Amino acid sequence: MKLHPLTRSPFLTARLISLSNVATPYPRSQINFILDFGISTSAQQWPGLNTKEKNRGNNGIAYCITGLKEMRSSLKYIEHWAQCSYYARLLQKCIGSKAIEEGVQVHSWIIKIGFQSDVFVGNNLLNMYAKCGILTDARKVFDIMPVRDLVSWNAMLAGYAQSEQCKETLVFFWKMQWEGMKPNRLTFASIFKVCSGLGFDQGAEQVHAYTAKSGLESDVFVRSNLVDIYAKCGSIEDARRMFDEMPERDVVLWNVMIAGYARVGYVAEALKIFEQMEHKPDKFTFLSVLRTFACVLTAEQVKQVHTHIIKAGFESDVVVGSVLVDTYVKCEHIEYARHVFDKIENSNIVSWNTIIAGYAQEGYGEVALGLFIRAQQGGMELDSITFAAVLGAFTSPEDSEHGKQVHSLIIKLGFESDVSVGNALLAMYGKSLGVEYERLVFDKMAMRDLLSWNAMISRYAQSGYGEPALNLFRQMQLADMKPNQFTFVSILRVSCIIESVDLGKQVHAQVIKAEPEADVFTESALVDMYANHGCLKEACNVFDKMPKWDLVSCNSMIAGYARNQHLHKATHLFRWMQHTGMKPSQFTLTSILNVCAFQGAVEPGKQMHSYIIKIGFDSDICVGSGLVDVYGKCGDMGGAYGVFDKMPKHDEVSWTAMISGYVQCECNEEALKLYYQMQLSSIKPDNFIFAVLLKACASLALLESGKQIHANIIRGGFILDLFVGSALIDMYAKCGNIMDACKIFDEMPARNVVSWNAIITGCAQHGHAKKALTLFDQMQDAGMEPDHVTLVGVLSACSHAGLIETGRDYFNSMSQDFGITPRMEHYACMVDILGRAGCLDEAENFISKMPSEPSALVWRTLLGACRVHGNMKVGKLAAKRLSELEPQDDAMYVLLSNIYAAADQWDDMANARKVMKDRGVKKEPGYSWIEVKNRIYMFVVEDRSHPQFKEIYAKLEELTGQLKEAGYVPDTGFALHDLDLEQKEHSLCHHSEKLAIAFGLLSTSPGTPLRIIKNLRVCGDCHTAIKFISRLDGREIIVRDANRFHHFRDGTCSCGDYW
Question: Fewer CB within 10 Å, N- or C-terminus of the chain?
């Protein structure tokens, strides 16, 4: 007969044949030996098996079963207990190999030969099904067993516990108690496992009571597990009590207590237990301490643990060493981490990954890359974590090439489809090359998880790309990817970017639906979103309904109050934080400082300054920048510089705050000097600083300085920035170079309303009314809606060009055509249009029909027109109204006295000057300045302070003679003093703008355009004289006065003598 491969052993065959031919019982030991030999021998051990046979089954189980069919005629002569033992061993073999199909076959043979009622066989069947995870079949076997012993119950309990069916385990345990089966320590092993998983202390107490009832409370195994349960349930006091009562405590129990204290956050107690250990710590002790406390241990505490590791001889252990490296990395002690790494014997990929990630996190990209190369060249099998770690080292454009090389290796080794590697590539390209490259990687990812979607959406949101982020969020939802709190926070930020409160409300509804009890992180983002949209009531509702306020939520609410300028409410919440002992963060302090800065509240700002010094935040760079901003916006540049100068280091924000403070306080020269200091540091200016600096140049009309900053803008890559582009247009226009302003405007790839306003206003100031109005039409054709500033520019253009009817039409159509309600500045523009044209009575009538009380600006404009046209009657009325509104306005007294002087009413002029003096009003002196070789030279009338004043006055005498020869006649009507004719002519000769021009002629080469700035309106005599000078000297002379630009060329002015 052909024998089964299992019976090919001559020894086994002979013994089975001899067993089948005896009538007397065979010795049990020999039978067991034969059965064990047949079962335990793997199919791979049989030399006679072919390849097909060797690849079948689970280590010979299938062969044992097939052989069982051929041997059962021999087995029937073996004693019952021996047959049971054989089947039991087969079932145990099935358990070890998870061979459930073969186990089912064995079960069928057991049923056929009637052994299913045997408790020993039944328990093994039960155990096989339970440990293979087939609990339904295990329960069926259990339920039909006629007799069940403690082994049966324990097998079933172990199966439920192994499958983490906690409820079923406990129900089965109560059933066991009900049926009177007394548990043993193995029973409680399953119950302990379930209670640890559930983590509720009430269940631990009940189990504890049952152990006492069962007489097992003193059992070391049971007590150790009870300590573990109490610790895992958070009842650390009960765990410690049982721990202290135990007469013997092994190292495992000490480890349990250390982990228990760690779990509830008692770091000091856990370390104390570690120090008090009665046993030599084992490997798991150190792993427990390091893994549990990695994020909370100080560097000194880690060093202490490290010392114990060295004493115990585990420093070179690859597992302990890797965890110790990770702990040092988290403590930001990369040098100690490297020391440990170098001591590890036979380091594995885990230790390499840890040290590479550590260097990458600390910003040592080159070192991380070097270690990565070493690992690769050393034959280390790289995994996805290795690539994720090294990709974290590439964070700047300079690193992009290295990142691309690693990317190529990822593709080569087949890791491109790994989601974690894909996410690391997203981060790397986003940080080094920008969001566009990151999106390319995202689109090519074969698999994406929630982290992938969140990373891409967050990057768009952080970069200010609202619409792409929103579109991606919608794609994510279509892909059935459920958003989490990080997704919601990003989309809430998007709602602020695209200025859509409706989107924010929709996300709020989704948050409520997805997370009825949202986390503090999401709720704080909701508060921030509503506050950003000005919906402070909704923000307060979310904040008030939060079950608990933490630092993040309070910061969000304070920032919301700050953003909406509620200083009182922000400080009230801040005081509540102080009262409850909640320590403020730098964000809290900067939010309060932002409100103080916006409201110009210098006293609250100073109080905050004192408090900041008290709590030790005065050296914080963010808080320091906030203080600089407060003092700057309150006009206290001395206080601002005092804070700035004491800061240990300066960042982009602090430089910006200081420079913008100077510009706001009209200390434009100091702002430019500070910028030159900034250039010597490593800080690179951003678009905001450039815009502020351009404003400084525009205020001083420093064209050369503006051009230098323009060059720096190009080098810095900000030339396409809308904010900077608009500032450049404004700078060139206010520096008298309207052609370059137009060129910048024409070259802009995109324009916003600020850009259009800058060029329209610039053209208007330069007298190019037709071009300004043409640009206004083009703006509307481009779909850009004008705002109130646009209409001020349009009306100013009409005013400078004398377009009365056109200006009137634009003013009357503001509400209907553009939806803009006229503001006070628009009424002032209309008064200016009428006043310049000499229609003073109409201007007065226009003012009388205004829907609201005219402001000082309106009356000042009318008074200025009366001065130009010498209208005494209307001028007195305007002066009276102006004095009622602003009695300290020097312009009112000066203009009125000038009207009197022009009419030769010297007594009235003297009286106006006397009233001005009696009221303590000081006249702003008229002055002019010119930029020569990047330096500003300022002049006042009859100025003799300049080192070259003799040469300047000689040049003026020379010019005056040439002008008179050319037909110039001084207009003594602008000599506003009661002097004789010769004295009047002499005083006119030494006006500040003429002194500036004379210096410019002396200091520049022939043909160089001169740019003069005057703080007041240029007088008529100077206007005439400059026309003659431009013709005689062959130069273009550009003068910016308080009203507009005058371009003098070849004896004419661009204003057409209408200004």
Answer: N
Whole-Å CA distances, 887 to 880, 917, 1016: 9, 12, 20
Answer whether 964's CB lies under 8 Å from 993's CB: no
What 8-state DSSP symbol labels residue 9?
S
Q: Could you give the 3-state DSSP secondary structure of residue 67?
A: helix
Radius of gyration of the chain (CA): 45
What is the pLDDT, as a whole number, of residue 517?
A: 67
Spatial separation of the C-alpha atoms in residues 924 and 891, rounded to whole Å: 8
Q: Coil, strand or helix: which one is 1046?
A: strand
Please give the structure tokens belonging to residue 212. Answer: 């006492």
pLDDT score for 8? 38
Q: Tokens 């230098």 identify what position?
A: 708
Decide if 733 contacts 766 (C-beta within 8 A): yes
> How far is 634 from 617, CA to CA, in rounded Å?
21
pLDDT for the residue numbered 61: 54
Of 425, 430, 421, which is closest to residue 457 (Cα–Cα)? 430
Residue type, 484: N
What does the pLDDT look like over 59-86, one tens digit per residue?
A: 455 545 554 444 444 445 455 656 677 7
Q: Copy the structure tokens of residue 952.
A: 């300047």
Nearest CA-CA partner of 754 in 728, 735, 733, 726: 726
Task: Quickly count: other Cβ atoms within 10 Å of residue 839's Cβ.
Answer: 17
pLDDT in tens, 357-414: 999 988 888 999 999 999 989 888 999 999 999 999 998 888 889 989 999 999 999 8
Contact 865, 831 (CB under 8 A): yes
pLDDT at 978 over 60: no
The full length of the chain comes to: 1059
For residue 955, pLDDT over 80 is answered with: yes
Tokens of 513: 């639906």
**Cα gap 893→906, rounded to integer Å:** 14
**Of residues 194, 173, 175, the one with CA closest to residue 184:** 173
- What confidence tens digit (pLDDT) does each residue in 155-207 have? 888 888 887 787 787 788 888 888 888 888 787 777 777 776 555 545 566 67
What are the CA-CA distances from residue 510 to residues 480, 556, 623 (Å)? Answer: 14, 21, 36
Between 666 and 48, where is the model more confident? 666
What is the distance between the alpha carbons of residues 65 and 6, in angstroms, rounded to a whole number? Answer: 10
Q: Is the dihedral of CA 887, 888, 894, 895 positive or negative?
A: negative
Residue 22 banded pLDDT, cuts 50, 70, 90: very low
Alpha-carbon distance 807 to 817, whole Å?
14
Helix (H) or strand (E) holding 521: helix 520-532
User: Picking from 322-326, 492-496, 517-521, 522-526, which range would have the lowest pLDDT averaged per residue?
Assistant: 517-521
Q: Parallel, antiparallel, or unpaired: how do β-strands 1010-1014 and 935-940 relate?
A: unpaired
**593 token code pair:** 């400082």
CA torsion through residues 860, 862, 868, 874, sign: negative
Sheet of 1052-1053, strand order: 935-940, 927-932, 1010-1014, 1037-1040, 1045-1049, 1052-1053
Q: How many contiguous H segments (helices) and E segments (strands) does the chain have? A: 59, 6
Round to whole Å and give the CA distance between 404 and 754. 40
CA distance 870 to 838: 10
pLDDT digits (tens, 9 = 90+) for 1006-1059: 989 999 999 888 888 899 999 999 999 999 999 999 888 999 999 999 888 876
Closest CA to 1040 of 776, 702, 802, 747: 702
User: Does the pTM exceed 0.85?
Assistant: no
Structure tokens at 710: 């323009």
Phi, psi (rounded to 5 degrees) for 928? -130, 155
Q: Cβ contacts of residue 321 below 8 Å, gap of 6+?
A: 314, 315, 340, 341, 343, 344, 347, 351
Alpha-carbon distances, residue 226 vs 239, 261, 292, 347, 538 (angstroms): 7, 15, 21, 37, 50
